[in-house]
Each structure stands twice: as C-alpha cells, then as structure tokens.
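for the writeup, i need someone to sanity check this before i put it in the appendix. the sequnce is what the collaborator sent (i think, or maybe the updated version? ugh). structure was predicted straight from it, no edits. if anything looks off just tell me and ill rerun, i have time this weekend
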Amino acid sequence: MTQRQPFLHDLNVLLAAPMQAWSGHEGQIRPGGAQGIYCADTRVIDEAILLVSGEEPEMVGSSLAEGGTASFQALVRTVGGEGSDPLVRLTRTRTVTTENVSEVIQLSSDLSRDTVAVVEMVLGTDFSPMETVKSGAAAHPVQPVERENVWHAAAGGVTSSLTAPGATIATDGHRLRLRWELTVAAHGTATAGWSVCAADSEAPVIAARRAAPAGLSVHAGDRRLTALVQRAMADLGGLRMATAQTPDDTFLAAGAPWFFTLFGRDSLIAARMLLPVDPELAAGTLRTLAARQGTRSVAETAEQPGKILHEVRRGELRFPEGSDHAGLALPPIYFGTVDATLLWVSLLHDAWKWGMPDAEVEALLGNLDRALVWLRDWADADGDGFLEYIDETGHGLANQGWKDSGDSIRWNDGSLATGPIALAEVQGYAYEAAVNAADILDAFDRPGAAAWRDYAEDLAGKFRASFWCSDRLGPYPAIALDADKCAVDGVASNMGHLLGTGILNAEETAVVVQRLMHPSMFSGFGIRTLDTGNAGYWPLRYHAGSVWSHDTAVILQGMAKAGHTGEAAQVAAALLDAAEAFNFRLPELFSGDTPDQGGPLPYPASCRPQAWAAASVIPMMLATLNLTPQGSGVLPTSTATSPTPFGALRIDGLRASAAGFGVDVDPGGRVTVVPGDAAA
C-alpha cells in the first residue's frame, strides 16, 4: 500500500500546547489520516465518531475555532418525527486544554413530547508517533483497560485516561463504544460528555506556565486586519510551550501538527516578529536555546561548539520505508541548521533594543561569545569567507536553510545544486549578526566589536563579487553558491531576506526590490519562493513556486526597513488578501497562483496554525509605521509619513521596555505613539 502524507487543509484544529485535536468540519474524528487527538508528538485518539440512534447527525454549521473551543451544529432526524421541520438539534462542543480534550454533547428539542435518544461515541485508542502519522503508515492501536470507571492506555511513556460520566462502555480491542440513553424533555435539553487526559513523561516540551499577554487591540479602516490579528493571536496562544528544564521560559512551537516542538529557526523568527507585542517571548526563546547551545563537534547530530540547535524531539525521528520522507533519520536533538545561530544573535540584539533588561542581556553574553566563536571558527568550513553547509551523515537534512527540502536549491534550468551550499540569505544574516553583536559588545564594554564590523564589511565585499547574476531582466543575487563556488542562478525569494540586513547598498537594494515585485515573483498575494520562469517552478511545489507567509512578511519588513515603504505596503495588502481566502488564518504556505488564475489554493499538508505564519501579521501590520525601539526605559519613535495599506489605524497593547503603548495612524500615515498600560 502506498504511503502518503495526509492532507490537512480541510480539517478543523484546536490546540493548547502540548494538546491538539484535529477533525473534519462536521466534528467527527475519522481514522486513516491526520485526524485525532495528540499529546505532543503522539496521537492518543484516532477516532471519535458520534451517532444518535444509530446514525451520524447531519451537519449544518460550526463555530470558528477560538480560544481552544469550537462547537459543531447538527440536526437529528432519527428521533421525533413531527412533520418536516427539524425539531431536534445537536450541539457538540469540543474544548482543548493543556492537559485534556473534552466534549459536551447537547440535544435540544422543540417536540411536543418527551423523547428518548440513544447517543453513542465510538473512540479509537491509537499511540502512533508523529512520523508514523505524517508518513501515512498504519496506526499503532493500544487496547485500553478499565480501572474504577476510568479507561487507561499507555505506550512508551505516553498515558491517556478516558472518562464518560453516565455512559455504559463496551470495548472491542482498541475501540471503546460509549452509550448514553438520554431522555429529552418536550421543549427541553439533555446532555452527555466525555474527556480524555493525556501526558508524555518523556516529552522534551511542556505547556508554558506564562500566559500570553492580553490586550492587543486593532481598529483599522480595513476591518479584515482586525479579524486577521484576532485569529493570529489566538493561534499563537495555543502554540506556547516551555521545556521541563526551563519551565518559566516560553517559546513558540513551530507549527501544528507536524512540528509541535522547539525549532531553533522557527521559534527565533516568530519571536523576533512578535517583539512589539510580547518581548518576554523573545527572552524565553533566547534562554531556552542558549541552555542547549552546542559544546562539541558531533557529525551525527551536526552539533558544533557555540551552535544553536535546529529541533528537539522525544526520540529519533525516522520515517518508514515507502513514505515520502523515507531515508530521513534525525536524532532527538539535532543541530542541522546553518542560520539559527545567526538569528539568535540578532534576536538578542533586537530584544535588547526593545527593552530587555541589561541584566538579562548580560546573563547571555557568554552565549553570545560562543555563538561568535561558531561563526568565526566553524561556519565557514572551507575558508572561502562564506557560510555553507552539507549533511555529513547521508540521513540528515540535505538543505539546512529555511528552505530545507531536498529539492529547494535550483539552477534556472530547474536542476538541483550540489553541496556544500552557501545560501544567499545566510550571508545577509551573518552580516547583520556581526554588526548587531558589535553593538552589544560596545554597549557592555566587551572586546571585539571592531573586528566584527570589519568581518561584516569584508563579507559584503565578497558577496558583491561572487553572488550577483544577470538575466534578461537585469542583475540579481543568486540563490546560493554551489560546491564549485559557482553562483546558482535560480531567481528565488532568498534574495528578499537580504533587505534590511545591511549587506546590500542602496542601489543593490533597489534592484532586489524591483525584481521581487516583478510579476514572475510577486503573485498578487505574496512573494513566490521561485521565479515562474524557472524550469522547476510549480505553484504548489513546497519551496519552488509556493508562497510562504513568513517569507513574504520577512521580505516586506526588509523593504520597509530599507525605505521602500510603498512596495512594503503593496505586499502587506496582498498578504491580507491571501489571509481572507483562508478565513483569516495565514497558512504556512499556499499556491503561487495569481488572481487571474483563481487566487491562492491551499498547500494541503501545510501546518495550521504555524508560528511564523501567524506571527507574520505583526510586521505586516507595522510595516509602514517605522517604529524604532530606543532601548530600555524609552518608548519607540516613528517618522512614518506613508499611508498604511489598511487606512487609518489604531493599535493598543503594544509593548516595549515593560511598558505598554499604542499608536494612532491618521489617513496620511502620520504616527503618534501613545503611552498606555501594556494590558490596555
């Protein structure tokens, strides 16, 4: 049987890390795909089918999943029978918390007499690890056992316990059949309910102790922005995690369901985007990753001294033979990333500028020193002045930038580049990290600042000499250098990450902005990952034609930082149009189709929600406002004069230096920073 990664685009999801629940939009959880109830990286329930008098209720509507709760509305025509009007309705309300998933089933009747309804719930107990689910392989059923009216199941450190007050329960192997006989009074209601608690004693991640800051409020001329921000902040609340070793330091899981854990790059980028909303998240992310910084050189894990990790799992991540990801095997703590260390340095700098207390910054200066040692001594293996990567194991990630699929680095003829690979954007990250580190070293009276500024200038010169290509539309930076130090001439969104890093001069910046806004790159909904003229382009190829929400947000933020606010506003407006097409939940990625082609289609296996996609709404919202943090104790300033793409704008609940502030933006784009309570 062919194993395929399950699609997610048409599923309902609720989450409160480390718990998540995936179902169809009618509320039923059906076996065979990605649907189910999960605790961290293990699915504990793969089936939850509701029946009333032997039949499935007929779905008529559902609420928007919000704050961990959703309700599903259905009609019941197997009881009653008074005329053609549907006089019995069912509401199935599902709630997800950090420890359990529960459901309340309510029958409401407008019948003129009492009626009896048999409500049944068929539950399947399944302890499949995430890689099994993602690969589409067979489930791992576990037979539950009953003790004192609670049904327990366990496997490999994961436990679940199910209760169903008032139900009679029969078992058939790994399936439980819950049965309630409810009397629904005339014009009355009757309820039943069940709950499953789950825990994973071996999970490296736990629920965050610190709640998300409350009070972000957005009022815009374009009301769609308000809907997008509300959905994004709710989703981000469900992705908040910590580790057992540092439980008070919060970070964001990369995304549900596949990446529901700590990822260096993803967690850092999301935290950086959210600095104006939740600066403590940045501090927690920095400390969590610093506590796991590399100390030695180990080829199997890709660990190197000073390096920031890529991801943490409960065990080895190995996909079955025959699956889409067969051959990939990653250790529980894996360092196979070329950019997380650089992003860690820049997040430390930006968090300091947004008011991270000096004492907290000082506590991380040793980690900063070690990160710079990695940049100096380990990141450039062949000594050519550029940062490159290659998987030395044969079963790790072939590509170790954010486009980490095996087919993402392409020549213009569609062929794949061979490693070691030096990515364009990574050189920009290194330039920015070196300059940012120098600023911190100067501010805290540490040596080495001048040397790192010299490093940055030398890198910019080498980049200018080696990375630029030209085609019929003119010059542009190549996506990468290959093993022979040839510029890989694929036109890709990677060049957009150079904007605002400082590695480009003003003329080069203008060239990059112009190329990204060309119709071959700008779809009308975002920036494509690959130019439409590339022989490998396909609008639904993961890293070679699709649009990634965070990629577009990073690019528009760089455009604005570099002074190209008009283009940044145009891209921000396009991303809002895309969000509307996905019910105001920006997906991880979507198709590169244009409005004339029918607009963006879902990438069916895309994470929803995903941390850096949801976090993208903040740089998108603030892109044209030119908010400049001033450091500890001082609120940001703004010199913006360009209209926003959202009309007049009022934002409350922003935060800097532990103080709250808001911004008023008039129709002309002039910004007034308004002091206020952080929770206002």
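The two ends are 56 Å apart (CA to CA). The chain has two domains: 12-203, 206-672.
thx in advance!!
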